[in-house]
Amino acid sequence: xxxxxxxxxxxxxxxxxxxxxxxxxxxxxxxxxxxxxxxxxxxxxxxxxxxxxxxxxxxxxxxxxxxxxxxxxxxxxxxxxxxxxxxxxxxxxxxxxxxxxxxxxxxxxxxxxxxxxxxxxxxxxxxxxxxxxxxxxxxxxxxxxxxxxxxxxxxxxxxxxxxxxxxxxxxxxxxxxxxxxxxxxxxxxxxxxxxxxxxxxxxxxxxxxxxxxxxxxxxxxxxx
Length: 224
Prior knowledge:
By secondary structure, this protein is α+β, with helices and mostly antiparallel strands. It is built from six helices and 13 strands.
């Protein structure tokens, strides 16, 4: 498996991260949970662009790819959802969108194809067209001033908006932070303690379940 990944953060409140990937050989990519859902444009040599939506996941999903394939991924913040979707997409489920020349269609609205540098303007167009919406309870759940709501209500908002539970979301983000710190060279004992794991075996088991990799092989985990 050989891929080159590039990412950038965004000042846009509705975007978590923007990714760009180039595949240097054939292989299988392990898509790991990251607390976001994605709008993806994939270009395969000789076949043009494919645009699709993927949902939140709580476990890794294997995705095959071919040499020369390249893609742009807009990962949305957890509080953002598709306003016209009747059900929230999760796991390996995807929704393919119609593509015509340099545009794709989502719920009857034509939009420019996603690019790495212009994700923000595309998302603004989607918001203006009423394709995206935000759940304020979810958006403020982890801020210093969460919106007044019962614990049960917050959990329900999370489930309705993201398709996964608030607990699963927290476990994913904790595993991400653990991977980030372990990759940076922090000691496993310190990471486990700081992030509230019972012990190192507990942390290792959690990372393996969510990210599909042991701490000794974290190169496969890039979406952190």
